[in-house]
Design goal:
4 copies of one chain form a homotetramer.
Chain A lengths: L11 E5 L5 H11 L3 E6 L2 H15 L3 E5 L5 H13 L3 E6 L18 H29 L2 E8 L10 H21 L4 E8 L15 H8 L12 H13 L8 E4 L9
Parallel strand pairs in A: 1-2, 1-4, 2-3, 4-5, 5-6, 6-7
Protein name (chains A, B, C, D): Carbonyl reductase family member 4-like
Chain lengths: 262, 262, 262, 262
């Protein structure tokens, strides 16, 4: 665990499943908005680099904590670390098992342990992480849990049962939890990312509407085939700050000009 | 048509279906963010009062234009007025036919003309309004159309076929339009409001997250049974300013603590 | 109206929207199973040919009755004819407005009256026909209403708003009616036909399972790209004879080997 | 493994997850239609009683084979037995982990191992069983796999994450498999049972329509609150014998007069 904090931390956001794209952008956004952020993933070396980078940019503390979401002991230990920082007000669960290759796999070639691991990372890990933070949220009557889904959360895809089964299960979890915990003041939402996220464009994703609409007019058709992770992170933030009289349970996100597949 | 403007208006938002709750809050939000807003509904007297009120509060111009969404001629004439103000960058379609009474109606007691009118207001009106503004949006390669749905947009309800058929059709329209027009840079989204909207709480729905989370801790469980229209309007605004690399097509909104029905 | 009956008819099935494919196959199946069948469509000449043909094949009475589902008066008059035959135990609603051409239409080129008519044929006509037969079904505590949907009933398609809005609305109607009338013993189901129906293969679609499985082994992959209307009609029949303790509200049907579209 | 067969078996149906209600009725139906049936469950004693009973009633062979769907070795061994009988043409997967009690469980009280086991039985077991039979089906270009879902397959329920996550995952599996294997002639369907199944009513669930419609008229409203497993099994059979030009991927079943819950 890498700490750059000194004074007592109060408002903690834990981002589980942080790679170079979405997780990093979400972490940066919450740091930027004043949260003490813990980022968690399996590769501590890479994670520490992200933490340093965000900490430097935002002049704030960022904690890098190793987690293996397929190991219950690792989840427990990681959250001992997270919870020691203070009240975890926000949990973002982003982790899933990357398929071994980009192409679909013949169903009969999928190894049982690979299928099980994918299900475990997508859904059992989410279950377990949620259990670590919910008691504190219930006690304080507030908190936000955001789960990351994909197009495979809604519809099965040939050759993608590993991904889809885990993501369907995660969606179920988000619905069950919102039914149970929203009356306790805990906002639980499922974000369906229906597209490919690229590197941040380095733009001002949080730019004001007037800037945006000015530049929109000059954007040539054909751009926006891939998604800017900073733009996606902006929606995660907006979900978190929604007023509790009007909460979203499920939202989709896709590029304006998605590629056509056959 | 009531005008309080003098200089040339540029950024127009048209809000169709404006009553004392959601429509009014959306209008106020877009005025507050710098848009020239036209509000449209059947009752011009009430509408003018809303326009005056918002114009006074926000020190801005608001146009009240009569529309009967069940009459094609009225739609055309109303949008001649709207389009004369300038480029309509935003259309919010909020109109639907109020059921004659609160209780479900026996199916065999529903009058054919009542069913037809409900379908017309919910979906034909939306079709027609969208046709008025889309050519301009396509020409400029930008624009936002937001359609308002409800829980009856997703699932049939006994005794509510008038509402549900129209709202299902509206959801279809929003999906067809987004498939066709998002590659042209036009954002089309469907907002499912799954709850009862009350009067604005007069609070700062656009308050910063830090204020909000501070006060959340003291909110007693049991509140947030009804929805604050200002909070809902905030989500409409956020949809409008989403980056075009990560657009939402469908989002739901409900109170954290919805009433239980049998 | 063309009558080939002499004795008192008792078990009536009315099939609305009968062309050379699905409607005709459903009609033939119900005739084959002993029902007195009325077939209804706009083109009485073609309809009468179908009625003659089925009557000859099945040695039974078939009634051809003209209906224009976009005209309320035509619906009422047609059902006066149908109801004069006796208790209408089964209604199949199959009618929809054929799009003017096979290719998707630019949204801004769709005429308002064309959109309205499509919505009317798909959903208002279904509403009106259901109203004609439901009082008799409620009185007797039994009956079946089957609505025909398509892939456009579930998801919007670019350039197909006329079809999709009507078919979404029809799906809503089927759900509302089943919520209200299933406790009265009336079975209401929605059949989603997700594929292209071809001409009947002239095979024994109702062949026993043993015959079927014997021949299956020799069927080359690549067949079954289009759907056999007799096979589809078989599922309509099975829905009708489902035991009331286990009723289907929605079912999909597609060929085993659907064509791939881009 | 208990064998009552002597001659060479050819057409095998394997029913996994057989208790006194649905599994038993499905087994009996397939035996009645001429299949050699293997029934599989954890409790071999009870299973053998069912096998004896059906074998006696139908004068046919029924195999009882122990399986623990949460143990990969048990699944493999059980299917060695099943596959030794001949080509498995039909697989019905019915198994799920009964929740420890009828009432919903507080999320934070659910044990991690209990959640994992439920997910394993509902979905990993289904994955594994499907892998055992699919190579043979692909080789012969035919076969049917039917998965049993429930209302928790479509929508999360407060306090039911164990059930819902597993059942959502199972639904994903059924969709992925149908996308991949239907073009190979293998029919894969998901049956959503949205209601409580009771004991068989002992009626003729396969009675002809004329008998059924005669008796329907006298059925008092208020019956059909629970589902007859023989009636449900009838739909499983009908799915199996569907023509391959018109296959169902998903179907729901519920009693005509379901109980109202708050």
């Amino acid at each position: 665990m890498k700490s750059m904090a000194s004074s007592a931390p109060q408002r903690i956001a834990a981002i589980v499943g942080v790679g170079p794209k979405l997780g990093r952008s979400i972490a940066r956004k919450f740091v930027h908005e004043g949260y003490t952020v813990a980022i968690l993933a399996r590769d501590l070396g890479r994670l520490s680099k992200f933490a340093d980078e965000i900490a430097r940019e935002e002049k704030a503390q960022v904690f890098a904590i190793r987690i293996d979401c397929s190991e219950s002991r690792s989840v427990r230990e990681a959250f001992e670390g997270v919870l020691s920082l203070g009240f975890v007000e926000v949990l973002v669960y982003n982790a899933y098992q990357q398929p071994p290759n980009w192409h679909p796999t013949n169903f009969t070639d999928i190894r049982l342990d690979s299928f099980e691991k994918s299900l475990t990372v997508s859904s059992v890990g989410a279950f377990h992480c949620a259990q670590q933070v919910l008691p504190g949220m219930v006690e304080r009557g507030r908190g936000t849990i955001l789960f990351t889904g994909c197009s495979g959360s809604l519809k099965g895809i040939a050759g993608r049962s590993e991904l889809c089964c885990g993501k369907f299960a995660l969606r179920a979890l988000s619905q069950c939890l919102s039914m149970e915990f929203q009356p306790h003041g805990i906002h639980i939402a499922h974000v369906i990312i229906d597209g490919v996220i690229g590197p941040p464009r380095g733009g001002q994703s949080s730019s004001s509407a007037s800037q945006r609409t000015t530049t929109l007019g000059t954007t040539p058709i054909g751009v926006d085939v891939i998604m800017d992770p900073d733009a996606v992170a902006q929606t995660y933030w907006q979900l978190h700050v929604q007023d509790r009289s009007a909460w979203t349970q499920e939202i989709d996100l896709r590029p304006s000009n998605p590629p056509k597949f056959c």
